Amino acid sequence: MTKKKIRIIIHKTINSKIQQGNIIFVSYGYARNYLIPKQIASLATSSILKQSYKSKKIQDQKSQQQYNSMRNIQHLLEQTNILSLRRKVNQDYRFFGSIISGNIIHKLLKITGIIIDKKQINLVSMRRAGTYMVRIQLSSELTANINIQIMPTYYI
């Protein structure tokens, strides 16, 4: 006895293999008794399939545009030479205060005009005057590295 299988389209991501928008074949009972009542999936009719393909195409175009804009921002950030910040230091060149991501965001906004969230900046420990590399996470795939030079202003 063969089980009747029907084609459905998934509305909610279930796991890494079965994601939203996927079209799969499942047994008739599983679809009718579980997936469709819980609105996890619906029957894949021709009109729904056309609509799904159109929305997937639009979503792919949007994600490609977003990726390209992030790539341009990455290129622009990496082209900026060295950001210079001034801080008061003592005789051992140790800072009074600390460098926070807000300082870097403000300086980048001034130079490039790009607004960056403070959660995107991965700060390294900056305790003395010198040059440091800071990583900016633009997206899950793209990062930009910028050099920051902290110059001392002597405290007298």
UniProtKB/TrEMBL annotation:
The keyword Ribonucleoprotein applies. GO terms for molecular function: rRNA binding; structural constituent of ribosome. Residues 8-51 form the Ribosomal protein L9 domain. The keyword Aminoacyl-tRNA synthetase does not apply. GO terms for biological process: translation. One of its GO terms (cellular component) is ribonucleoprotein complex. This is 50S ribosomal protein L9, chloroplastic. It comes from Hildenbrandia rubra. Keywords: Plastid, Ribonucleoprotein, Ribosomal protein, RNA-binding, rRNA-binding. Residues 71-151 form the Large ribosomal subunit protein bL9 C-terminal domain. InterPro entries: Ribosomal_bL9, Ribosomal_bL9/RNase_H1_N, Ribosomal_bL9_bac/chp, Ribosomal_bL9_C, Ribosomal_bL9_C_sf, Ribosomal_bL9_N, Ribosomal_bL9_N_sf. HAMAP family: Ribosomal_bL9 (MF_00503). Belongs to the bacterial ribosomal protein bL9 family.
